[in-house]
PTS sugar transporter subunit IIA
Amino acid sequence: MSAVDIDLFKPELVFFDFEAKDRAEFFQKLAVELSTRGYIKDTWLDAIVQREREYPTGLACQAMSVAIPHTDPEHLQKPYIAVIKPQHPITFEAMAHMGDDVSAELIVNLGLLAHADEQVAVLQALMGMFMDEAASREILEQTTPEGMVEVMCRRCQA
């Protein structure tokens, strides 16, 4: 999975027990976290909400359900990958509007400055990792930001 730049995973961008009652509140709270750390521009929130509406990112895998929201590079200050394990699953529409809504247990927000082809390669690499039951189990077992970064980096290189 060499398509993923593992340097983009950082402990400061791993959030556990992230509290949000729905997707809208999730994006609002994540915007605060990312803005405070200098990763996004003021346009990010509206852009990611709009993109998620048009191109939903929920993915129901066998081992866990995830969402991989992202938006266009012009809404970013610098590249990042944020990993969020919400306090309670957050409902996302199924990717490509196919199937039922997904109760995401893990959300990986991509802030990539890459071209569309590179972004697709990263999405495919992450989806492959989430479809691997052992990888999914190991990811869900993590309790520290450092542990999550280590597992995500190692699994992305596998």
Notes: The longest strand covers residues 9-18. The chain is about 40% helix and 20% strand.
